[in-house]
Amino acid sequence: MKDILIITSYFPPEIGAASNRIFHLADGLQKRNYKVSVITPLPNYPTGRLFDAYRGKLKQTNKENNITTHRLWIYATVSKNKFLRLIAMLSYSYSLLWFFTFNKIPKTVIVQSPPLLVAFTSMFLLRSKKRKLILNVSDLWPIAGLELGALKKGFSYRLLEKIEHFNYKKAHVVLGQSEEILTHITSIFPEKETFLYRNYPDFEAPEIKYHKQEGKLQLVYAGLLGIAQGVLKLCQELDFNKIEFHIYGSGAEQKEIEAFIESNPKLPIYFHGRVTRKELHQVLLQYDIAIIPLLNRIYGSVPSKIFEYAKLALPIIYFGGGEGETIIKEHRLGWVARVGDYKHLNSVISKICYTEISTTFKEQIKEAAICKFDFNTQLDQLQDLL
């Protein structure tokens, strides 16, 4: 039985795409007879506060689903203050340093990036000719930070670029969730071995449910309510003549969204809060269309919701540009609106009618997900690199 260590900043019971991606990777590997261990911070995402069950602890080790999980201390915050966010990343890096010093580390290690500094700590301290380091890149930093407006070009940006390049250089294999990510990496290190590892879901596709064929279209958003997603902007810009808008999740914009709904009681916007992923899958089946927005196009980003919603046979309006837009069009998963163009988004929505959201259309979406976005096929191919 081969030992594999996964180092990540997100893991259940935390919610979100990053947490789900790493859990399914760990669970899939242990089902293939690998001895899997995970290092992760004490749960705190996305609230920025340690979950109640973990407060007052410096670390905790437990075993669930045959996965040994080491939860380490972190200074938890979701503050927009860059200094505090840096402290949070450095605190986890400090915990990793202590863990590496006093524990035996397997010969194969998968490191999640971003955060860049956490990945750098792992790649720097664990580099060895006898150890295989696999870097799993889900977003391109610092490029994404620049496009989101969180970073500006200057000394700190150049420093982060050096850290980014160091991480790629020390990795024996780089996994990327998009073709754009892999193209970026091979432009820097042409000989680097890479593998396209998308965030495909690992659950049984449910039966398709019948939907009403009258009234307003029920549009749903589910996920992180962060600045990048721009859900508050959607609430402000959507034309509600034909739709009602349902929101699930939590994050930095939550209070502003709730305040907007309270101050505009006549708008058909409904905030349902946060639910578990299992509950969400059942809830989503009652809606007509899901929307996947990004406030700005982010190079390298492919929202994992595309693959999850497809497996739920839920038609998608994609409002994020880039590679995700190509996937929606290629596999006919729904509709595309130009990123940042709310007039075009409203125009696209206004032309959708119930006859388009047919059982046949949903079956076609589900079939595409099963055939093209299969988690187990992808993981079987990844095994050859481990």
TrEMBL record:
<feature type="domain" description="Glycosyltransferase subfamily 4-like N-terminal">
    <location>
        <begin position="17"/>
        <end position="189"/>
    </location>
</feature>
<feature type="transmembrane region" description="Helical">
    <location>
        <begin position="83"/>
        <end position="102"/>
    </location>
</feature>
<keyword id="KW-0812">Transmembrane</keyword>
<keyword id="KW-0808">Transferase</keyword>
<dbReference type="InterPro" id="IPR050194">
    <property type="entry name" value="Glycosyltransferase_grp1"/>
</dbReference>
<dbReference type="InterPro" id="IPR028098">
    <property type="entry name" value="Glyco_trans_4-like_N"/>
</dbReference>
<dbReference type="Pfam" id="PF13692">
    <property type="entry name" value="Glyco_trans_1_4"/>
</dbReference>
<dbReference type="Pfam" id="PF13579">
    <property type="entry name" value="Glyco_trans_4_4"/>
</dbReference>
<keyword id="KW-0472">Membrane</keyword>
<protein>
    <submittedName>
        <fullName>Glycosyltransferase involved in cell wall biosynthesis</fullName>
    </submittedName>
</protein>
<keyword id="KW-1133">Transmembrane helix</keyword>
<dbReference type="GO" id="GO:0016758">
    <property type="term" value="F:hexosyltransferase activity"/>
</dbReference>
